[in-house]
Automatic annotation (TrEMBL):
NCBIfam families: PRK12324.1-2. The keyword Transmembrane helix applies. It comes from Candidatus Woykebacteria bacterium RBG_16_43_9. The keyword Transmembrane applies. This is Phosphoribose diphosphate--decaprenyl-phosphate phosphoribosyltransferase. GO terms for cellular component: membrane.
Length: 312
C-alpha cells in the first residue's frame, strides 16, 4: 500500500508540473534557429539546458499558482480534476517540490550564465506577481503573459551570445499577446455564469474588446512576421536564384515562402477561438487540432530547410 501511495503521489506531482506547458519554452531555440546555429552541438546543448531550466522554473510557478487558485479551480469544469484542486496533493508536498525546482533552476542558470540567472530571476518575479496580483488586473494580466514569452526568447539568445532580430522579438510579443487574449476570450465563453468566481478580470473584459484585440493582435503578428522575413538575410546568392526563377520572382528572401503557412495557422487559431472556444489552453489546442499541428510542423520544417539546406 505504501509503495502504491508513493507512485500515486509521484504521478500527481508530474501532472501538476504540467509537462505539456513546456512547449512554450521551446521558444528559447528561436535565436539559434534563425542564426543558423541549431546544429552546432555546443550551442544546441547550452540552449537545451536553458529549455530544461525554464521548464523546471515554469513548473514551480504552476504549482504555486494551482495552490493559490485551489478554491477557484474547484469551480472549473476541468481544472477541478487537477491533483491540487481535488485534494490529492498536500500543501506541504506542493510547496516542497516548488521550492526544490526554484532553487535548482536558479543554481543551474547561475552556472551557465549570469545573464540567464538575472533573466530567470525576473521571470520568476513576474510569474509570482501574476499569481498574486496581475492576473486580477485587466490588460496587465495579458501583458504579463507576453513578457514571460519575451524573457524566454532573450534567455535563448544571451546564453550563446547570439543577436536577435528586432522583428523576431516583435513577432514573438504580438504572438504571445494574441494567444493570451485568445485564452481570455475562450475562458469567457466556456465559463459563462461562473466566470467571475473563477477569474475576476473576465467580467472586466467586454466581449467586443476581446474580439477586437484578438483580431488586432492576429494582424500585428502577421505584419511583424512578414517584415521579419522581408528583413532577413539573403539565404542564397541573387545571381544563383535568378538563374532558376523569372526576374520578377528573383528575390533571395526565401523565408517569405513561409508567410502563407503562418497566415493559415493564425486563421485556424481564430476559427478555434470563435467557433469552437478552444483557445483556453494553447498547448492543448496545438496538440489536439491536427490542421494547426500540421501547419506548425510544416512551418518549422520549411524554416529549417530554407535556412540550413537551401542556402549558399
Amino acid at each position: 500500500m505504501k509503495n502504491r501511495s508513493i507512485v500515486a503521489n509521484s504521478f500527481n506531482i508530474l501532472i501538476s508540473l504540467r509537462p505539456t506547458q513546456w512547449l512554450k519554452n521551446l521558444v528559447v531555440f528561436a535565436a539559434i534557429i534563425f542564426s543558423r546555429e541549431l546544429f552546432i552541438p555546443s550551442t544546441f546543448l547550452t540552449v537545451f539546458y536553458t529549455f530544461l531550466i525554464f521548464s523546471a522554473a515554469s513548473s514551480s510557478m504552476y504549482l504555486v499558482n494551482d495552490l493559490v487558485d485551489k478554491n477557484k479551480d474547484q469551480l472549473h469544469f476541468s481544472k477541478r480534476n487537477r491533483p491540487i484542486a481535488s485534494g490529492n496533493l498536500s500543501t506541504r508536498s506542493v510547496l516542497s517540490v516548488a521550492l526544490i525546482l526554484i532553487v535548482t533552476s536558479l543554481a543551474a542558470a547561475s552556472y551557465i550564465s549570469n545573464y540567464l540567472f538575472f533573466i530567470l530571476l525576473v521571470y520568476l518575479a513576474i510569474q509570482l506577481l501574476y499569481t498574486f496580483w496581475l492576473k486580477n488586473v485587466i490588460v496587465l494580466d495579458v501583458l504579463a503573459i507576453a513578457l514571460a514569452f519575451m524573457l524566454r526568447i532573450f534567455a535563448g539568445s544571451v546564453v550563446v551570445l547570439t543577436p536577435l532580430s528586432a522583428w523576431l522579438i516583435l513577432t514573438t510579443m504580438m504572438l504571445a499577446l494574441f494567444l493570451g487574449i485568445g485564452k481570455r476570450r475562450s475562458e469567457l465563453t466556456l465559463l459563462s455564469g461562473i466566470a467571475a468566481s473563477h477569474r475576476k478580470t473576465l467580467l472586466s473584459y467586454p466581449v467586443q474588446l476581446l474580439d477586437g484585440l484578438a483580431f488586432m493582435m492576429a494582424t500585428a503578428t502577421l505584419i511583424t512576421y512578414s517584415l521579419f522575413t522581408f528583413n532577413s538575410p539573403e539565404t542564397i546568392q541573387r545571381e544563383v536564384f535568378a538563374s532558376f526563377f523569372p526576374r520578377t520572382l528573383a528575390s533571395p528572401k526565401m523565408l517569405m515562402v513561409t508567410i502563407p503557412i503562418v497566415v493559415y495557422g493564425i486563421f485556424r487559431y481564430l476559427y478555434l477561438i470563435f467557433e469552437k472556444s478552444e483557445g483556453e489552453s494553447p498547448e492543448k489546442v496545438f496538440l489536439t487540432d491536427r490542421p494547426l499541428f500540421a501547419s506548425v510542423i510544416l512551418w518549422l520544417v520549411s524554416v529549417i530547410f530554407i535556412l540550413y539546406f537551401f542556402s549558399t
